Structures are given as C-alpha cells and as structure tokens.
C-alpha cells in the first residue's frame, strides 16, 4: 500500500455549539463520538427489570467519565413493544415503562448541563398497529379516507385470499396481513415490511408528511439535538408495488448490484429529507439527522448526506467488513472517498442493537456472513479472540476522521449472549422466521454495572427482562474502572487521546506496510493494526502512545492488536 493521502472532511463553518465539551473546529457532529443507549437495557430505576429514563439520568456521569460527546436514545415512546419500541403508538409521549414526559425533559436538561448532546429515534416508515391512525384505518373500511395513510390493497386470487405481491417481511414471513373488515368479512391486506404490529405508512399522503414535520418540531422544541431516522431507505415504495422475486434471503435492503428492490432506496425518499433539513435548519444550534439506511454501495448511501439532506448516515458497510487488512483498507478508503465527494463526514460503527456485538462477531471465521443471532446449539465463537479483535477494531475505528458510534456495553467489552434460552427470546424475528433465525436479543441483554449487586447493578432488584449470563460479573464496570489495561480504561484513554489529538477532524495518510498490516498517519499520530499471523516490529524510532493490548515480550505488535505511535518527524501536522 503506497502513500495515498485522502482529503479530510471539511467544516461547513457553522457556529460552534453551546455544549461545554465541543473543543474541535467545525460543527460538533462532524467528529462526534455518539453513544447509543438502548433504554430497556441501560439502567432500571424501579426494579421492574426494564431500564427507564430515570435510570439513564442517574447514570449519565458514566458517559461524561467515558468521554463521549452525545447520546442517541433508542425509542422510549408509548408502544405495545411488539418490536421493542420500534412500533410507536404515540410519537409525542413516553411509555410508562420508561417513565413520563417530564423525565424526558429532565434527561435533556441533565445531559445538556453535562455538555452531552441528545439525539432521539424517529420511526417514520411505520407506526404501531395500536396507533390511533391504524385503528381509524381499520374502522374506515375499503376505500375509506383514513385507510389511505397506510398501504392497503386488495388481495390476489379468486377471493382476494393471496397477498397483493410477493414481498417478504424483514423478520420473516409475508410482508402483508389480511384484515377483517368492519362487517366481519375477510378483507383487504396491509403492508408491513417488519412485524404485523408495524403497518407501513403511505408517504405519498400529505397528512403523513405534515404529521412528521410536526413531530420533528415537537421534539426540537423540547430541545433535542437531532434524530436518528429509522429505516430511512424504506419510506417510499415503487408505485406499482411490483413483485420482487430474488427472495432467497429475507429482504434486508442492501441494493448491492442489479435492480434495486421496489421497497428500498427509492429516489423519492430524498425529497422528504430535504424538507426535514429545512425544518432543522430553521432552529438555532446544530441539530442533526442521521440515516439508518442499509444501502450499498457507499456512493448510494452518500446521496442521503448531500448538503441539503441528512448530516450523517450509519456506515454499515464498515460494520460488515471482514477482519482482514485488505477488507479494512478497502472499506476505509471507499467510505472516506464517498462521503468526501458530497462534503459529509464519514461515520464509523461496529455494534448496535440489531447486530451481533463485535466482541463476538469478530471471532467468527473470517468471511462468515453476519448471522442473525447465535443460539446455544450453534458453534460458540471464542470470547478471548473476539475481545482481542474487538479492542483492536475499536482503536482502529477511533483513530479515523469523522464521527463514531458506540453501543452501550461495548466499552466493557461485552460479548453477545450466545446461549440465551430460546423461551426467553423476545425479538419478533424468532417467531416470524419459524425459529430459523435466533434474532437480536443476544446484544440487548441489560448491561452490568456492579459485579456483586442484584442484576449486576442494572437495577435495584434481581430482575432483568432478558436473563443476564453469570459471566456478566467479570465485565461489570466496577471490576474495570481504574484497572489499567481493562477494556473500559482502554476506551477511556482512546476517547481522551482522540479528542486531544483532533483525530476526528484529521486526515488519513496511508503508509507503506507489509502484507497483513494496516499503517497510516492521522496528524502526528501513526496507527498500526496487525491482522497478520506473525508479530511485527515497531517502526524505527516509534514511541508507543496507546495500544489495544500488550506488546509481546520482544516489544513487537502481536496479531490482532492496534497501536497508536508517535514518530518524531518534522512536517507532520
Ligand atoms: C430498524 C431498527 C430495528 C427495528 C427496525 C424496524 O432497523 O434499528 O431495531 O426492528 O428498524 O423498526
């Protein structure tokens, strides 16, 4: 790999934010580290086994100590919880299991006073089937005005007994469910790309568009710093709802090659985000939109972050890249180039509430497609190898320019819970796939704070909505805090150095390296990751600044370790 500088993402020159912790040039979101809180599983204040907003408030200082810039909260709105809150029945309130609206206000204030920004989740592709609009749609009957806010169609076949097209739900099974009409007869079908409890909205309907602008304003007025937009690539469907044959795999979005699926990444979505951008820009401060769009290649994803659309999009191509030097080199260079082409910051992410935690995923044989859950009967990935690679991957990620996302618990090195009893599973994927897919519960287990407390300090009682494994004790925060070399302290040091050295606003310059090794410079810091089988010598004159794991007894960088180095050379900025 020869020397090949890539342009840094550049600032738009907007006013610096109000928050205390912003200390790099340009808008905060171009280089921010954003921590995802999954409210059910972060901290439980009342002992019912489900995390809540008061629990988050009580633990905010952890995030300050860790050194992140912002939090993204997964949904806390009133919901039947058919998909853990991604089925929203009321977009302007808080579900009683998570607290009250006043708690949301208090959380925003408590975060702000600590210099932490807060992004909330917006779920516009579908509502819950318990949303009043859907009740009205059912009651209205075929052709009724209220039905047109959703995607209702007559079925195919003699009695309309077949679904209107062949689309499959992301969670398995048909993407259509037939309703019983008010007169008691079997009637029309409605579209749900996810669970039956998540009917898709019709984004051609002006009332749908107006409603979401109003919801944006509602939360902006309460002081949120932005929105993570759920299934941002799904809102607009191809008008003819044409059949989509290639369904060996359940639809999941990435339009890699060939024709684009009629339910994903339609060009019409962009107009919606341009409207929303105008709304955000009319507010003071630097409020942001972040796309959750499983869209590939990187150039199509970049369309979501053009200057008049969203600010960021999750980089899932990076999350899915194999743990090898060529794969990582390719995805990093492609990601930086694609976002630079539209002037957007690149983002980086390794874990979230939908994927196998990277401390487990990276121990799967290289090249394994990302599995949708791991169960007790499946081969169990090696936790030592996984954690070692995860730490190396995190150091690599945090040395890259742009914005990085962390998922709660990864700072503790938490692995996936791969032996959850099947009867405890709650992800609708498990039932809807006919038990073919274990689903996402394994990354959603309530996190451990204190090794010797009930529920490992998750809450005051020994209650947890998903069972916690006994090995959670060794990962608990109080076992790692202040312990040199612990995963938690490695994260903390990485975040501090990233901030001090301006890595988030820097530039990647690739340097010559042997096969199996990635080596680049960002500012005055050199970053080396060894993916190869053999240890590698530190470059001549290098001073070790930080490492994801110990060097070997001869002072070399072992396999699956990332080091941050300083080399005394003039001319490096
Ligand atoms: C997004 C969410 C996921 C949810 C789905 C449907 O992919 O991240 O958790 O199940 O949307 O809302």
From TrEMBL:
Basic and acidic residues biased stretches: 419-443
InterPro entries linked to this entry: GH, GH13_cat_dom, O16G_dom_2
Key words, A-Z: Hydrolase
Sequence ranges of Polar residues compositional bias: 1-13
Domain of life assignment: Bacteria
Region annotated Disordered, chain positions: 1-20, 417-444
Record domain Glycosyl hydrolase family 13 catalytic: where: 36-444
Listed name of the protein: Alpha-amylase family glycosyl hydrolase
